[in-house]
Amino acid sequence: MDNVPNGVRTYRNLLDAKIAADLATVGRDQAAKGLRLQGEVGTWIRDDLGDLIDYGRPIGPNGSIGDVDVETSKAWIEVTVQNSDKLKQIKRYLTNPAFPQKPVILFAPNYNVTPARDIETLGVPVLRTKEELLNYLRSLK
């Protein structure tokens, strides 16, 4: 048996259950695809990096300000299947103190080049593959 305190083990189990629920989401609409992709990213961070701090955490009452899709000790990741339209949301995340004060990454496999440039001018990388994401997170100090 490992030496993980019960509270930490319970929290890890909660994150695992959230990821499993998102991976099992049924449907072909953008929301369902987005939840499945978020579940995949959470799985990569948990299994490949061992650095999953939080997952699917709402910010503000009932998520009224937004949410943290996936969080590591070094950054938090906004996950989307969209091909654009995240600039306003990313700006809000960068300026609102309710969000984790650490680097933001946009993981967006389908994101178009021009909107990606707009987000990258804010200092937020737009990453499109598992390898890019994991390598970028490993490079953070």
List keywords for this structure.
46% helix, alpha/beta, Trna Endonuclease, Chain: A, domain 1, 141 residues, five-stranded mixed sheet, 5 helices
Task: Give your account of this protein's structure.
The chain has 141 residues and is α/β, with parallel strands linked by helices. The protein has one domain: Trna Endonuclease, Chain: A, domain 1 (3-Layer(aba) Sandwich). 46% of the residues lie in helices and 16% in strands. The protein is built from five helices and five strands; from the N terminus they run ααβββαβαβα. The protein has helices at 6-23, 30-49, 87-95, 113-120, 130-139, and strands at residues 54-59, 66-71, 76-79, 104-107, 126-127. Strands 1-2-3-4-5 form a five-stranded mixed beta sheet, with helices on both faces. β4 (104-107), α4 and β5 form a beta-alpha-beta unit. The chain is globular. The protein starts with 5 loop residues before the first helix and ends with a helix. The mean pLDDT is 93.
Based on the coordinates given, report the CATH architecture. Answer: 3-Layer(aba) Sandwich
Give the helix proportion (percent range). Answer: 40-55%
What is the fold-level CATH name, i.e. the topology? Trna Endonuclease, Chain: A, domain 1
Structural class: alpha/beta
Poorly predicted parts: none
Oligomer: single chain
- The topology string of helices and strands comes to HHEEEHEHEH
Q: How do the strands line up in the largest sheet?
A: 1-2-3-4-5
The major beta sheet can be summarized as: 5 strands, mixed
The total strand number stands at 5
Overall residue-averaged pLDDT value: 93
Determine and state the CATH class: Alpha Beta
Globally, the shape reads globular
Distance between the termini: 31 Å
The radius of gyration is: 15 Å
